[in-house]
Amino acid sequence: MFSDRLIAITSIGLDGEEIDQITFMPKPRIALQKGMLVATAIKCLSAWEAEAFVVKHTGIFSALGEIVILEVSKAGNGLVAGPSTVKEMETLICMFSDLGASKIFIDGAFSRLASSRLGDALIFVIGASYAIDMLKVVEHGEATVQKFHLPATSPQYQFLEAYQEIIGIDESGSLRSFGNIGFDQKELFGPKMEMIRKLYIPGAVGPMFAEALIQNRNRIHFDLIIKDPAHLVISGLLLKHLLSLKMEITVLRPMNLVAICYNPYSPTGYVFEEKEFQSLLMAKMQVPLFNVGAESEKSNE
Q1: Which residues contact 193 (CB under 8 A, 6 or more apart)?
Q2: DSSP for residue 109
Q3: Distance between CA 204 and CA 151 in Å, rounded?
Q4: Are 279 and 291 contacting, i.e. CB atoms less than 8 angstroms apart?
Q5: pLDDT per position as a tens digit, 241-279
Q6: Sheet bearing 122-127, strands edge to edge
Q7: Residues 222, 247: contact at Cβ < 8 Å?
Q8: Residue 194 CA to its chain's centroid (Å)
Q9: Domain boundaries, the chain
Q10: How far, in Å, are 54, 243, 301 from residue 263 at the CA level?
Q11: Structure pTM?
């Protein structure tokens, strides 16, 4: 299965444990195949069922000890705990590449979405565990995918990434710094903002800003530039209202969403009707869909 390429696996945080550390519910294991490269903290090896040998010490340390790169010599489940920072993950990716890895998979939660910019592609998982209401799960997934599809900012504005403060660009192309004033409505949406046509926000864009922008939509006319989709921390109806404004939202680091995996099973015991769940997702999202459980069963046949 992997003879034509070298697969490497790691994680932002801890993955592969039998019991989720937050919900205390059973969770899928990480199945490792012979020949794979895996980066994990050394203290995780006592929980491994797979057999492997160390090929490189990374010098990157976590609460579970040094992260080492191993090559799997016998297939089995493994516990994976990788770097917790973007910089450390960048270093690890370079090490994987130097060892000949042609495909690198990084497992991570949505709360650590900022690290996804390190990859060439993103696979998003939508599961029944989010809520017992299927429609609520689909709506949440649709809103999240909308963020992933935010278009790339024009190359002429890529220089903005070097700024740590809020930057406005007026009609003449002149820059104006609004400092690190946060999203105080009186300051950020004052009279001077009426001349701004592009606004760059280096930090997170949350509900307070979105509400203020919607309230001032008839007076303020600028396009919004943010670093990446992870910086748009708005969801639900508020996100829909924001995206419906006559304002373009672009990102300096776009994401390449290539597939969505869906899981109709919840660890708490309830199950969505698979065909209905798939149909609702297909109607909302124009990317390939894969049933996590079904694909896993096929790979084990």
Answers
A1: 168, 199, 220, 222
A2: -
A3: 17
A4: no
A5: 888 888 999 999 998 889 999 999 887 788 999 999 999
A6: 122-127, 257-263, 289-291
A7: yes
A8: 34
A9: 7-132+255-299, 155-251
A10: 34, 28, 19
A11: 0.73
